[in-house]
Specification:
The chain is mainly β. 5% of the residues lie in helices and 26% in strands. The longest helix is centred in the last third of the chain and has 10 residues. The radius of gyration is 17 Å and the shape is globular. This is Putative dioxygenase.
């Protein structure tokens, strides 16, 4: 049987699985980091969250040659909570474009995978709201959100240094680009707190056409104008991504860590 080719969008260009390089398009100031047209429509993706996502999604594809550089730290932010459960599906039934986030952890110096790391993620709902008993600015005193723990989860990296979370595409809120928070512990020691971004053109496609994001005003902040990332560094933190056949978005990123 012939293997179907999968096309990964990498930092501004398309990468066929197994290729090693791709073109990168970068912007400055408040402009999008990338301005590309995709051969996709918002209707190509499922709606309603993770409920109808098949269990047998294809394995994530990472770049053939990881950059093997240290992933820079970013602010923790006020919206992290404690007692985050270990789980793959973090949605708790919330609506949104189903998205699988896959992270590969490697030693920055050797590119060897790091297994047994405790990886935590958290991000907003399609409405731009965080769950949990976090600072009031995180969920605008939304009682339902404060009593829930959606879009938060932890996993332990496998022998390949990989974790995958089933979630939904994050919503936006003023002053911030579309992002996911992460925290990584190895042997109970915190090695990294950081954030990752989504491609601006991809966010435009989702917010302008996907039904789970309808009714919200146009987002105010692109990657190049984010209040946390400088315009010069934002491009280094953008997920690689692809559209999986079941109508699920795959977002992938390789994280380089130093354990000494």
């Amino acid at each position: 049987m012939q293997m179907k080719r999968r096309t990964i969008v990498v930092g501004g260009g398309a990468l066929l699985a197994g290729a090693a390089t791709a073109f990168v398009a970068r912007g400055r100031g408040g402009e999008p980091i990338s301005r590309r047209s995709f051969d996709w429509k918002a209707s190509d993706f499922r709606a309603g969250g993770s409920a109808a996502v098949p269990a047998d999604l294809p394995e994530p594809i990472f770049r053939a040659k990881p950059q093997c550089v240290v992933t820079s730290a970013q602010t923790l932010g006020p919206c992290r909570t404690s007692d985050v459960p270990v789980r793959k599906d973090v949605t708790e039934g919330v609506a949104g474009l189903p998205t699988r986030i896959s992270l590969r952890l490697v030693e920055a110096e050797s590119c060897e995978p790091i297994h047994g790391a405790d990886v935590e993620i958290w991000h907003t709902s399609a409405d731009g709201v965080y769950s949990g008993e976090a600072a009031s600015i995180c969920n605008r005193e939304d009682a339902d959100a404060r009593s829930a723990s959606f879009l938060r989860g932890r996993q332990i990296s496998d022998e390949n240094g990989v974790v995958s979370f089933l979630t939904v595409y994050p919503g936006w809120y003023p002053g911030r680009a579309v992002h996911v928070h992460l925290r990584i512990l190895v042997e109970d020691r915190e090695l990294l707190v950081s954030q990752l971004l989504f491609d601006d053109a991809l966010s435009d496609l989702v917010y302008e056409g996907h039904p789970d994001y309808a009714g919200r005003p146009q987002r105010s902040t692109m990657n190049g104008g984010d209040s946390v990332f400088s315009s010069g560094e934002a491009a280094q933190f953008i997920f690689d991504f692809e559209k999986l056949d079941p109508g699920v978005l795959q977002a992938s990123y390789t994280i380089g860590l130093v354990r000494s």
